[in-house]
């Protein structure tokens, strides 16, 4: 079986979060979605499970972090620098926050960070593997 990742995220407004992730290019998989959960697909191996706060609490009793805190920064690779820039623009126009950390341009790698509606941090990056080898 192919290794896959399912990132579970608590969200305050499931429909708004689904629209946000759809705007970023994630696709909803209705087979694993219901009134409390939405499975949003980034690739064949990367899935984001959006869970209402009520549903989240059925998995853990740990507190849900506030939108201005960070527990993890999730990094997703992009095809090029333009895609990194575009995703930050889309996030900002759909209720998220672009450039929550300073942009980094190391030549062989370029990244920008955004936050979704609930403050979950995503690092969108592009890397030139051929530049790494030299």
Walk me through the topology.
Elements: E1 5-11, H1 14-24, E2 27-28, E3 37-41, E4 46-52, H2 53-56, E5 73-77, H3 81-93, E6 97-98, E7 104-105, E8 109-115, E9 121-127, H4 129-133
Parallel strand pairs: 1-4, 5-9
Antiparallel strand pairs: 2-3, 3-4, 6-8, 7-8, 8-9
What distinguishing features does this structure have?
single chain; 134 residues; alpha+beta; 2,3-Dihydroxybiphenyl 1,2-Dioxygenase, domain 1; 2 domains; 5-stranded mixed beta sheet; 4-stranded mixed beta sheet; 4 helices; 9 strands; globular; Glyas_Bleomycin-R_OHBP_Dase; Glyoxy/Ble-like_N; Glyoxalase-like domain protein
Describe the structure.
The chain is an alpha+beta fold and about 130 residues long. The chain folds into 2 domains: about 1-60, 2,3-Dihydroxybiphenyl 1,2-Dioxygenase, domain 1, CATH 3.10.180; about 70-134, 2,3-Dihydroxybiphenyl 1,2-Dioxygenase, domain 1. Helices cover about 25% and strands about 35% of the residues. The strands form 2 sheets. Strands 5, 6, 7, 8 and 9 form a 5-stranded mixed sheet that branches. Strands 1-4-3-2 form a 4-stranded mixed sheet. A hairpin with an 8-residue loop joins strand 2 and strand 3. The longest helix is centred in the middle third of the chain and has 13 residues, at about 80-95. The termini are far apart. The relative contact order is 0.19. The model has no long low-confidence stretch (mean pLDDT about 95).
């Amino acid at each position: 079986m192919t290794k896959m990742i399912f990132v579970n995220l608590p969200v305050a407004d499931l429909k708004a979060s689904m629209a946000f992730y759809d705007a970023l290019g994630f696709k909803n998989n209705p087979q694993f979605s219901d009134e409390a959960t939405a499975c949003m697909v980034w690739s064949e191996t990367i899935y984001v499970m959006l869970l209402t706060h009520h549903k989240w609490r059925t998995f853990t009793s740990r507190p849900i972090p506030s939108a201005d805190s960070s527990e993890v920064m999730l990094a997703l690779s992009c095809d090029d620098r333009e895609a990194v820039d575009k995703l930050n623009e889309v996030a900002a126009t759909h209720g998220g926050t672009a450039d929550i950390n300073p942009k980094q341009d190391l030549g062989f790698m370029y990244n920008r960070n955004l936050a979704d509606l609930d403050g979950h941090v995503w690092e969108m990056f592009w890397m030139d593997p051929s530049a790494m080898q030299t």
